[in-house]
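fyi for ur records
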Amino acid sequence: MSANSDSLSATFAALADPTRRAILARLASGEASVSELAAPFDMSMPAVSKHLKVLERAGLIARGREAQWRPCRLDPAPLKDVAAWIERYRRTWEERFERLENILHQLQSKREKEQKHARRPRKK
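which gave:
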């Protein structure tokens, strides 16, 4: 397994939890302290810290230090890697859906021609 797939696995695992996704959404608007990030959730500070550690291990957030304030900030690099990975598959599926759509149009045209031919009165 490559390092890139390991980082993708860590990113997907981190994104799998709705609390962690909500934390990332908050950090998308700017830095925040752990207590600010914990405020909307009905959970203990240690539980929030565990979520932050998962996000940090996945490289999705970074923690700074400014005097007594330890802000967390979003690091979008792993999200860009996920987006690139997904994009490859999106293109593949779009191409497959286009081919399927073409086949369906061909079948529909053939069926319409057959129905049109079947409705013609036969000459005696």
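DSSP finds five helices and two strands in the chain. thats all i got for now
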